[in-house]
Amino acid sequence: MSHRSLAALVKAYDVRGTVPDQLDAEVARALGAAFAEVVLAPDEAPGCVIGHDMRESGPALVEAFSDGVRSRGRDVTLIGLCSTDGLYYASGSLDRPGAMFTASHNPAAYNGIKLCRAGARPVGEDSGLADVRVLAERILDGEVADPGGPTGTLDERDLLTDYAAFLRGLVDLSGIRPLTVVVDAGNGMGGFTVPAVLGTGAGLPALPLTVEPLYFELDGTFPNHEANPLEPDNLRDLQAAVRAHGADLGLAFDGDADRCFVVDERGEPVSPSAITGLIARREVARAVAGGADAADVAVVHNVITSAQVPEVIAATGARAVRTRVGHSFIKGEMARHGAVFGGEHSAHYYFRDFWYADTGMLAALHVLAALGEQGAPLSEVMADLSRYAASGEVNSTVADAPAATERVLAWAQEQGVTVDRLDGLTLTHAGGDGDDDPMWWLNLRASNTEPLLRLNVEAADAATMARVRDTALGLVRRG
């Protein structure tokens, strides 16, 4: 009998693949049983909570996964349609492990699972996911049979109103000036959560917001554009709508609505690093208002957020904690330092008051509050948080990533840089006092799954950024 491998399906942080050739009901059931054995130990949790996004394959996969969990005598609570941060809310508020069926922004043929322990603590390759994969493979191979004992219970709960009320309790918008906001849900779960949180869809009181919806119809085929606002083409409809409506700002959510992207009143994208700085200021101020000493407050950011992020954090008197790219590293550092907030360049925003988990909706509430608490337009509010010119992430296919990296290092060392290998290679040129020697930094990181090098460059001005970016790319692609 040939061995059934799930290596292509079970990634470092989640499960993700095409349906049904990689992920079908049989595989989902095996993963559910393995999840129950590995994560739902009797002394840890008697059961779990399961939700899914709008993809057509979701309900059948949830049913199979739930059957696998219950076959191990563990209980299941189904919360139905939800965003990923809605699942994290359920895991945190119910203190149960969770499984969210989503493939985020991936195309319609995909689905997947994001797993967490009680309190929304992540399950990744180094924290149980590899064990889940191995056990699921053994179950599929017939090496591990069902135990045959009593099955767990099954119940259903609707937590949308509780989720919306909880977020509103963290950021109060009731007293802000009236704002018009265009929201592009991309046919993803933002179309489900935005009416509940920003509107009256969950029975909560109306806020001083006029929401202009774009693509709120839940449709896992994504008929209008990919639900991935990180790609500039997917923001064009939002930008046009903001200008057409004369709106104060625009918000775009990805497929599972755990990331939020912002455009200002001109329709110009706002850097996630600038949003990180804005929210960091607000969360530090809230902690200090609650009696904390600013020096004891920490904010986490990854190695490729803008250089202005640690500068903004330092100006508040708080501590900036730098870590590797990836949610498990952000969450781990936040827990270690008790950080109030963490931000990534990819528009994932993490909050201590949300079980250290990421939630795009809570980030959106902070932006709306910061804008609505004063009279200036968003472009002015964000002006001092957009200090430098950035390249964005540029990927290059390379045959020999280490050799390409060393070529860039050799060139940069001639320019006078500091070298940091926390996550890939980070090279920083501090610059001088005059305009003829501007600051710049770059980071080169190898992909874990593809023959790619990922380059990020930032500089004090656009010309320097372009020069450093183009020089580095020439060296990377020379081979």
From TrEMBL:
Q: Does the keyword Membrane apply?
A: no
Q: Which SUPFAM superfamilies match?
A: Phosphoglucomutase, C-terminal domain, Phosphoglucomutase, first 3 domains
Q: Name one Pfam family in it.
A: PGM_PMM_III
Q: Which GO terms describe its molecular function?
A: intramolecular phosphotransferase activity; metal ion binding
Cofactor names from the entry are: Mg(2+)
Domain (Alpha-D-phosphohexomutase alpha/beta/alpha): residue spans on this chain:
9-126, 163-267, 277-386
Family (UniProt): Belongs to the phosphohexose mutase family.
UniProt cross-references to NCBIfam families, sorted A to Z: PRK09542.1
Q: What is this protein called?
A: Phosphomannomutase
